[in-house]
Please model this.
Amino acid sequence: MKIAVASGKGGTGKTTVAVNLALVQDGDKLQFLDCDVEEPNAHIFLKPDFANEETVSIPVPEVDEEKCSFCGRCAEVCAFNALIVLKENVMLFSELCHGCGSCAYFCPEKAITEVPRGIGTLEKGTAYGFDFIHGNLNPGEAMSPPLIDAVKNKINSRKFVLIDAPPGTSCPAVTAVKGSDFCLLVTEPTPFGLNDLDLAVQMLKKLGIPSGVLINRADIGDDRVEEYCRRENVPVLMHIPFDRKLAELYARGESIVLHSDRWRSMFEDLWEHISELVDSGKFKVEQKGEEAR
Model:
């Protein structure tokens, strides 16, 4: 079972929820993936012992200008404008390259080879008895999906997998949640929270992924998020009130369930509820549009 924890916007408490869900599981049966590779922070709370690190690369073109006829075919087929062919040389903007290989494939002179370019690192370790893996994108890099894919390639299909996804609904978030059996959306009862929750719900519908909602700081806003969830048939699985003690624990990098039996029980119930929804298939959704294919 693969469970993603996501949010339409940042700052809703997504990582807090993911970490506490992990801490109420049997460590031998769990694998935790922090796919928020632009700003991974689950390790601050889980404090894993990292065993190894590897560089993640994408293939980028290298042009042999002695073979090149400067016909411009490589630039024509590049969907991301990473190449410019001038009269006597070829300019490459490697940060724009998506590593698709079209330029090398279509080059009539076979003047292009692909070389690896590191975009970040992947670290593996253990925390509280379970496997912990996260990616760390290099500063200034714009291409996070290949690194997210590299993290997800380490999934152990024999274990429960908990994915801490990036915020938002753009390519990184889609890459992280795609293939999940269920996605828990963490939101807050504010106009911004509702707006971005709607974007996330519609994204998951197009991907065909069933979802539920956790409302954080549930007592500081209004009930429009609740009304929206009823209208969209998305179950609200848990409420977390605004609590200074919880905020203090977060600020110290500590987890709720390690300090409160009450909260441990609540997160255990949340995990059980999610498992029941996945097993029952009650909230399966139809895929819509080209994005779902």
Remarks:
- The chain has two domains: 2-56+126-282, 65-110.
- Residues 261-280 form the longest helix (20 residues).
